[in-house]
Amino acid sequence: MLFIWLCFALSVSLAQAQELPRSSQICEITQNIGLTKVKIKYNRPNIRGREVWGKLVPYEEVWRAGANEATSIEFEHDVQVGGQALKAGRYAIFVIPRKKTPWTVIFTDKPDVWGTDYDPKDKVLSFNVLPEKCYFCESLTYQFAHITENSANLVLAWEKLTISFSIVTDTKERALNNIETAIANAAEDEWQVYVRSARYYKDKQIDSEKAMQWAEKAIEINPEHFLAYWVKAELLAEKEDFHKAVEIAKTAISYGKQSKEGDFSYEVQILQQIANWERKVK
C-alpha cells in the first residue's frame, strides 16, 4: 500500500512540474473604472484558417467566450453589467452566439470550471447584445473601451465580429464615503486630506460651503503650501468674488514659487486664471 501511495504522489509531482505551452495563450487584463478595479482572465484561441462563427463556435450553443477554462471576470465593488445590478465578486462569462438574432451574454457564479461545464443553475444574470462587424482579429481579444470614471464597455472581438456591454460603477458615492472616512480619521497635520476633499467637492459641484471650510482648514494646518490657496481662489471665483479670488490666487503663486518640491507647474494655469478674473473685476 505504501509503495502504491508513493507512486501516486510521484506521478502527481511530475505532472505538476510539466509546464508546457498552450495553443491558446492565457491573458489577464485589469482596468480601473473610477474606484473599482475590474479584472478579466481568459484564453486566446487563434483562428488558424478555420471558419469561426457557426462552425468552430456553433450558433445557438453556450460558448465559453474563450478557450480551455471558463473566461472569468472579477469586480472589486458592486457594479451594473448590461444594465443589471451585480455584487462584487468573481464570475464566469458565457455567450450564446446566433446567426440572425441578438447574442446572449451569461454570467455564472462558478468561475473556476472548465469552459464546457456550464450549468444553467449557476446563472446570476443574462442579457442580449447585438454583434457588429469589425476589423479582422486573428486572436480572440477582450479590451475596455469608452472608459470614464463611472463606466466602461467590455469588448470581445474575434474574426470579423465584436460584441460589447457596459460596466457601470457608483464612483461618486464611494468617493463621498472615502472622504467622510478620511476626514473623520485625519491626523492633526494631515492637511492634504482636507485640500483633496475640498477639490473633489468643488470639481463635482457638491457643496461649495463645505469645500471652502476644508480649504481653509488645510491652510490653517499648512499655511505655506500653495494648493489650498488655489482651491480657495477657485471657490471664490465660482461665487463671482473675483477681487478676492485674484488676491488669494496671487498668494498661491507666492507660496508655490517658494516650494522645495521642484518646478511650480501650476504657475501658468494660475496666472491665466488671474488674468481672466481681473478682466471680470474691471
Helical content band: 25-40%
Assembly category: single chain
Q: How many domains would you count in the coordinates?
A: 2
Main sheet strand line-up: 1-2-3-6-7-8
Mean pLDDT: 92
The succession of helices and strands, N to C, reads HEEEEEEEEEEHHHHHH
**Biggest sheet overview:** 6 strands, antiparallel
Distance between the termini: 98 Å
Q: Any overview of this molecule?
A:
It is a single chain. With about 280 residues, the chain is of the alpha+beta class. It has two domains: about 20-170, no CATH class; about 170-280, Tetratricopeptide repeat domain (Serine Threonine Protein Phosphatase 5, Tetratricopeptide repeat), CATH 1.25.40. Helices cover about 35% and strands about 30% of the residues. The protein has helices at about 1-15, 170-185, 190-205, 210-220, 225-240, 240-260, 265-280, and strands at about 25-35, 35-45, 70-75, 80, 85, 90-95, 105-110, 125-130, 130-145, 150-170. Strands 1-2-3-6-7-8 form a six-stranded antiparallel sheet, with no helix packed on it. A four-stranded antiparallel sheet has the order 5-4-10-9, with no helix packed on it.
